[in-house]
């Protein structure tokens, strides 16, 4: 039966009996009903309201929920005095009862309104839930609230082709124009009491604070910190981005002194915003109209900024981090930044980049600059320092990478962006006179040697080190400054050899032999003496470790000197070798390995057997035609799987990679999940592209960058990448 007149909330428990049992409440058969406000009944519930005065205390009131408000009275009787009202609109919000806010015997709900905030308490969890549910249902029935600014933006959009009407709207609505006074409420609607991020107040409070920050720009000696602060807030509180755009449009409209440096600060912040975040569709239209009006001022700074912002909005993607100090300064002057890109060997070049430049764009420009546009191999950007290296995703913004590096890198001086080979599809067609040959020598040969990934005997490794010196320094000279050994020879090989020699069994002194034969009770008596003996033993162990480390360093120094001496002798014998001859000889030795050209990843390979499951540390080699498994240090592959035999591959959980070849499932645990998957995708894509099958929908490889999965466009399950069963 439809309800007539004002209604009020009595009780609401049906459907929540499970929650009641979970919290030890007695299960009651009650229902939710709205009743006529005049039909007073003793079946209502009292709630306690938090009252703030000189101290916080709880008072009991009779609460009534109607279709428009939450009211509270002195009691349930007819004629009871109403003490307060919270008008319910679409912007009101409810904080539901939570274990973390449970206070002794009371459950709380909080209702936020425009002028009031009610914190209510009840002894029953179910009752708290049902009150919250009932209030939220009323809120959800309300029409969305529109602010005056929203209504005026719509009027401007509807009349944008009628300049007189638009001018009239601006002249009669100061909310759209520049002001020196404070802002007491946001320009756009936000839920009351809404919290989005730890460390911030409500969104409405933060919106008002942001306007105050904008006004401080006019008098600030250094505007960059304020701009960074505003951008950081917009990064953390996504819902405030449209608000800041509206505030900036307001402060750049009908300004009394539009050409002063103080006023241009607003345009500079608007420039930084446009290169960091895109506004929503309605605000974007409003912003574009505003820029069009401002650009009608010929040859003015406002016109220059408006044109720059309009172009930026066509390219902007959401940033991962706030622009750096350097980038903000460049944007304030509408300039580009210089970025140094290194490539194998001592080479590097500088490119101009902006806030929208991606890694793919830099790769393309580097290929053009170095004459590699026709190469059959593919290239990528890598982040690199002395300890690690990782490829940069093609869609990544270079400005974000530079900013993150500035924030996080402790050894920024060693960090660099490198342009390198990514997929080696064809090594045989590379001309010895091309720069690509240098890439092959430096990256596919020398780097894997010094990393210890080339399975070769020590004699070959020393020969390679000598050839490296000849290619770098020319003929042997006692005055030539030699690079350190770890740049020529795999250091882990020396460490392994020395550790094995030091761990060999040594003669035990007679006193220790006698001690080992004594019963434990005799060697460690109880009482105070036991503690003394234990301290003495710990000190002796520490002393032994110090001596062991000292011997290790000494032996490493001796071994390094011996190996370096042998390398120098071999270098002396290479007199007359040209740089090209040295590189060719180096490559000849490296090519003897069957896995030449592959990228190696250290993985834990899981093996299932009748006695149980166990793992083995192996190398997974990803190459142009296959993936292979190698035992570390051995030249022959344990197994190799051509791509034509691979049915699927992908990430099966947070640190596990799975490859299905025929009826076999190969499971690996590795920290390089994304890199392995992206490299395999790149090889498959390159193969399909070279064979002219890149548009075949049955073999199209797609990547879901949000969750890190790759799959076919026609495959419903995104966890694994399904590939054609026939050879590719």
Automatic annotation (TrEMBL):
Instruction: Return the InterPro entries for the record.
Output: Actin_motor_Myosin (IPR051724), Band_41_domain (IPR019749), FERM/acyl-CoA-bd_prot_sf (IPR014352), FERM_2 (IPR035963), FERM_central (IPR019748), FERM_domain (IPR000299), IRS_PTB (IPR002404), MyTH4_dom (IPR000857)
A Pfam short name: IRS
Domain of life of the native organism: Eukaryota
GO cellular component terms attached to this protein's record: cytoplasm; cytoskeleton
* Gene Ontology molecular function: any one: ATP binding
Taking every annotated instance into account, which residue ranges of this chain make up the domain MyTH4? 178-332
Q: Which CDD domains match?
A: FERM_B-lobe (cd14473)
- Using the record's annotation, list all stretches that form the FERM domain: 337-694
Q: Could you tell me the keywords of this UniProt record?
A: ATP-binding, Cytoplasm, Motor protein, Nucleotide-binding
Q: Which residues cross the membrane?
A: none
Location(s) in or outside the cell: Cytoplasm
The protein depicted here goes by the name: Pleckstrin homology, MyTH4 and FERM domain containing H3
Query: Which source organism?
Result: Kryptolebias marmoratus
């Amino acid at each position: 039966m439809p309800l007539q007149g004002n209604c009020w909330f009595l009780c609401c428990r049906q459907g929540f009996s499970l929650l009641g049992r979970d919290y030890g409440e007695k299960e009651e058969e009650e229902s939710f009903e709205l009743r006529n406000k005049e039909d007073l009944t003793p079946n209502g519930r009292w709630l306690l309201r938090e009252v703030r005065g000189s101290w916080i205390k709880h008072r009991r009131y009779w609460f009534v929920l109607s279709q428009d408000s939450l009211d509270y009275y002195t009691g349930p009787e007819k004629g009871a005095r109403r003490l307060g009202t919270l008008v319910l609109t679409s912007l009101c919000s409810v904080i539901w009862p939570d274990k973390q806010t449970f206070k002794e015997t009371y459950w709380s709900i909080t209702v936020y309104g425009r002028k009031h905030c009610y914190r209510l308490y009840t002894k029953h969890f179910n009752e708290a839930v049902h009150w919250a549910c009932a209030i939220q249902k009323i809120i959800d029935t309300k029409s969305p609230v529109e602010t005056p600014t929203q209504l005026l933006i719509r009027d401007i959009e509807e009349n944008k082709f009628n300049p007189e009407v638009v001018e009239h709207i601006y002249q009669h609505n100061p909310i759209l124009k520049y002001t020196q006074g404070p802002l007491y409420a946001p320009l756009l609607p936000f839920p009351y009491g809404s919290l989005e991020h730890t460390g911030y107040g409500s969104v409405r409070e933060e919106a008002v604070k942001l306007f105050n920050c904008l006004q401080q720009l006019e008098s600030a000696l250094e505007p960059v910190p304020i701009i960074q602060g505003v951008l950081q807030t917009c990064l953390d509180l996504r819902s405030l981005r449209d608000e800041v755009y509206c505030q900036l449009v307001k402060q750049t409209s009908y300004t009394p002194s539009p050409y002063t440096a103080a006023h241009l600060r607003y345009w500079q912040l608007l420039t930084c915003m446009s290169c960091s975040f895109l506004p929503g569709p309605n605000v974007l239209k409003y912003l574009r109209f505003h820029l069009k009006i401002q650009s009608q001022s010929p040859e003015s700074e406002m016109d220059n900024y408006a044109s720059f912002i309009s172009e930026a909005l066509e390219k902007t993607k959401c940033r991962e981090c706030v622009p750096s100090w350097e980038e903000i300064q460049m944007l304030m002057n509408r300039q580009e930044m210089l970025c140094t890109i290194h490539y194998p060997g001592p080479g590097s070049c500088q490119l101009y980049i902006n806030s929208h430049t991606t890694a793919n764009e830099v790769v393309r420009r580097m290929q053009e600059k170095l004459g590699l546009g026709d190469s059959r191999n593919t290239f990528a950007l890598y982040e690199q320092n002395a300890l690690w290296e990782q490829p940069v995703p093609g869609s990544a913004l270079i400005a974000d990478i530079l900013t993150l590096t500035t924030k996080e890198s402790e050894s920024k001086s060693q960090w660099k962006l490198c342009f390198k080979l990514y997929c080696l599809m064809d090594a045989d067609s590379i001309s010895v006179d091309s720069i690509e040959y240098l890439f092959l020598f430096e990256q596919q040969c020398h780097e894997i040697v010094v990393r210890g990934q080339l399975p070769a005997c020590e004699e070959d490794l020393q020969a390679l080190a000598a050839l490296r010196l000849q290619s770098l320094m020319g003929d042997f000279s006692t005055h030539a400054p030699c690079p350190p050994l770890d740049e020529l020879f795999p250091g882990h090989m020396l460490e392994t050899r020395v550790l094995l020699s030091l761990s060999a069994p040594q003669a035990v002194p007679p006193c220790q032999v006698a001690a080992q034969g004594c019963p434990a009770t005799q060697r460690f008596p109880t009482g105070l003496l036991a503690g003394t003996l234990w301290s003495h033993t710990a000190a002796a162990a520490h002393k032994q470790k110090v001596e062991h480390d000292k011997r290790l360093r000494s032996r490493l120094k001796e071994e390094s000197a011996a190996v370096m001496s042998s390398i120098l002798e071999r270098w002396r014998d290479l007199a007359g070798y040209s740089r090209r001859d040295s590189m060719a000889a180096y490559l000849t030795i490296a090519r003897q390995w069957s896995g030449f050209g592959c990228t190696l990843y250290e993985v834990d390979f899981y093996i299932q057997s009748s006695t149980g499951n166990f793992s083995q540390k192996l190398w997974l080699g990803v190459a142009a035609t296959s993936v292979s498994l190698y035992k570390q240090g051995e030249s022959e592959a344990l197994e190799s799987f051509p791509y034509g035999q691979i049915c699927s591959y992908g990430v099966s959980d947070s640190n596990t990679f799975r490859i299905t070849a025929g009826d076999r499932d190969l499971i690996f645990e590795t920290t390089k999940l994304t890199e392995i998957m992206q490299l395999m995708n790149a090889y498959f894509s390159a193969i399909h592209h070279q064979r002219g099958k890149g548009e075949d929908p049955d073999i199209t490889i797609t990547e879901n960058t949000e969750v890190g999965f790759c799959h076919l466009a026609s495959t419903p399950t995104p966890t694994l990448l399904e590939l054609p069963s026939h050879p590719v």
